[in-house]
Amino acid sequence: MTMGAPDLILHSGQVRTDDGWAEAMAISGGVIERVGTNAEVRELAGEGCRLIDLGGRVVLPGLHDLHVHPIYAGVRQSRCRIPQGSNLEETLRIVAAAAADAKPGDWVLGGQWDASALGGTPNRAMLDSVAPEIPVVLEDTSGHSAWANSAALRLGGITAETPDPEDGIFERDDRGEPTGILRETAAYLMAECAPKPSQADVELGLAWSLEQMLSFGITSFTEAALGFTAGARTEMRAYHALATRGVIKQRIRISITWEPSDQEQLDVIAERNFYSFGRMKTDGIKIFLDGVPTDGHTAAMLQPYADTVEGRDDDASRHGMLRVDPDLLNETVANFDRLGLTVKFHAAGDAAVRAGLDAIEFARQRNGDGPQMHNVGHCTFVSKEDIARARRIGATLEVSPYLWQPAPICSDIAAAVGPELITRVWPVREMLDGGALVVAGSDWSVVPSVNPWVGIETLVTRREPGGSAESFGPAEAVTIEEALDIFTVNAARQEGEADRIGRIAEGLIADVIVVDQNPLTVSPDRIHATRVEMTIIEGEIVFDRAAVGEV
How far, in Å, CA of 543 to CA of 469, rounded? Predict the structure, then answer.
């Protein structure tokens, strides 16, 4: 293929293609013009062409993160940050320091905490001991529970008489008083009382997150839940502002959170095309079907949880909660499908996964097969029967391989569901063998880093990055080739871009990365250490480690 003088040539390296390894590639006008030997490619160089000597380094397709929260991650940088795994003493020390620095009228907001790391489910009295006057609200690692002190509960008007909201729980002590632990929509109600970040704050945090993702070779991502950090309109305006200023380099799909009671979200969904710009698509919808299978038991499960929730004996404590009525869900998904919108579900429990697949099948039956690749996100637990039908109904299964033991959240999950079910956590091997389209997302900042190489390694090893004695569902391990496909060509199919990106081949768009080691040949427990030296999107070098130094 010869289209004209190339703008950029990468040579003397290892370039991964569908047909094996090449030495060099030429890029012209953002498109891969030639892939081959050094001699074949370098002969195309003309005046003005930039030549980069790879020095044996490896060129791969750009990586995709199909479930990430960049605004959430960026805004958290300026809040009270509690390292994951912190014990109670360390957590309270950090909160006390933040409260001491707070000015009158300020709140201490931040996270993250996990019950297992704290030694059990916490309560408001613990926070009151270090912050009796300043309102404090801390999110857990999952973002589905909050821990508030008495000052915050007072400002929120939450008392013993306050009823639980729909799809939410104010946990209470044996006297009926709120303990300060708020689950699901109860946590969201508490967040509504707290100060919201401004659009300027959101833009600053988003810009920081974008740079972080470029430094890890993420050339495409899906904003998995627009609206829950600062409100749908503020967040959409921030994305649009950065896109129009040229700050956004990646290909983006924005999934706008849908809650039938949130008029702002519904308005932004209706206005979505006013915000679409350049490489940013606004054609995604996010629907939360359940919570998380941790100590709060809010993920919807087919079988009862293995442990109990202290002070609760309701159906939600035994089977979790399905947040959307199935009939409403089916009609809603069919309507979005008819409008050409792609639906992403939050579905951690196997009962929630089933509800999402039911809705996709309902939409296919009503509207016929269409191009929308609706996807069920997280899939922490999936029944064997539902894995078998995913391919038949054209549903994508999205997994979260960055969450790994001995992380505290995984210890919480293991305790909640029991030893038998935990062997099938994120059943990726079964998914691939069943012919389903499988993709991955980090869920950052639920995880401490957006580094995709952690997810790639743990898909292969099912162990802690770098190796560990403990393994998490080892029967569900995949090969390194399959793991890379999940992050590249599979993701491109999911985004409807497989004809343009996801592989290195002549005629495709030049979204590629240069890395310092070959993840296909290094020891599997060293994949996470892969370092991205250069990120190229449509022929433009958008990250160069040599120029910016360490990130």
Answer: 36
